[in-house]
Amino acid sequence: MDLRHYEVFNKLCELKSFSKTAEALFISQSTVSSYINLIEKEMGIRLFKGNKKSTGELTEVGHIFLQYSSQIVALANESKKTIKNYNKGLSGSISIGISPTLCYYNIPKLLEKFNRKFPLVEIVLFAEISPKIIHMLNSKEIQIGIIRNSTDIVSDPKFNAKCIGIDNFVFVFSPNNKINRMNSIAIEDLIKEPLIAYGKNTNFWPQIQGLYNRFGVSPKIIMELNDIYAVKQMAKLGTGVAILPEISVQDELKQGLLVKADINDYVPIKRYSLLIYRKDQILTKQMQNFIRFMSASQ
Q1: Can you spell out the DSSP letters for 232-297?
Q2: Among the three residues 64, 87, 110, which one is the final residue of a domain in this structure?
Q3: Which of 74, 91, 94, 73 is nearest to 82 (CA)?
Q4: For the chain, what is the largest distance between any 2 Cα atoms, rounded to a whole number of angstroms?
């Protein structure tokens, strides 16, 4: 028996007529009869009572067989739909490594929109610093990375990269900090202040060091933290100044809990959000859909 036999049997049970079943399935009545006879022969059972085969009155074992037959056809149709959706990138999964800054602030909204468009695609997220994400891509632990970088390109020729966002790093401090009482703030004033250091183990820290080096000084690090939330809390308490992604302090700035330095003649440090993946990677439909979606959302 093949799937067609189960489909014919199910339709006959539904319509209770050989002629209507044949018409619905675009086959002859004799074909319907031969399918039913083959099922009965192979299973060694009688599906219909006495001479009531034409009315579709099932025997007790016929009712049992119908339950399984219905499940078999339903599962076959479900598998076809699932495979079809998978081939179109409408189902399946994607493993993605994302920089914590992006994971906590602007990326979640984009992922929620992607989920609405592709509800059957599972996204497996790993919140890691950018160097770790690159390592995971090289070891093929993940398929796609969304990293933070000092430029809009990656130096490693193994990767394709698409810039999906740019934002500034800003100096922030407590409203009670003495700097907030200055009529005018220069970068020289800020680099003398105690610094609550964030991201010393990331590829962002060299940009901070470069800023201080231009003035021939080293950062006066009073505290080193690897969590943005903790850095913001310490800055609000007046412990020192912090240099953080502007996207990460929007709420605190609006609420007046932190102040952003308006610095004279200062070009802020820029960070680029890059979507990267290996050039030698076979792009599944799910990956292609995700890359197109993120590129269009920048």
Answers
A1: HHHHHTTS-EEEEEGGGSHHHHHHTSSEE--BTT---EEEEEEEEEETTS---HHHHHHHHHHHHT
A2: 87
A3: 91
A4: 102
Encoded tokens for 247:
């996207």
Say what the pLDDT of residue 202 is. 76
CATH number at residue 110: 3.40.190.10
24-73: per-residue pLDDT in tens?
Answer: 999 999 999 999 999 999 999 999 887 656 666 899 999 999 999 999 98
Residue 127 is classified by DSSP as E
Q: Are residues 215 and 283 in the same domain?
A: no
Based on the fold, state whether residues 77 and 120 are members of the same structural domain.
no
Instruction: Give the chain's domain count.
Output: 3
Residues comprising the chain, all counted: 298
pLDDT band at 144 (very low <50, low <70, confident <90, very high): very high
CA distance 10 to 99: 53
What is the token pair recorded at 176? 């009670």
Q: What is the pLDDT of residues 97-139, one digit of tens each?
A: 998 888 877 788 899 999 999 998 899 999 998 889 999 999 8
State the residue for tokens 């330095």: 261
Domain identity same for 75 and 54: yes
* Whether residues 139 and 221 fall in one domain: no
End-to-end Cα separation, the chain, in angstroms:
54
Domain that holds residue 25: 3-87
Q: What pLDDT does residue 189 have?
A: 87
Looking at the fold, whether 21 and 74 belong to one and the same domain comes out as yes
- Domain check: are 27 and 107 in the same one? no
Does this model's pTM top 0.90? My answer is: no
In a shared domain, residues 201 and 212: yes
For residue 232, the one-letter residue type is K
**Distance of alpha carbon 214 from its chain centroid, rounded?**
39
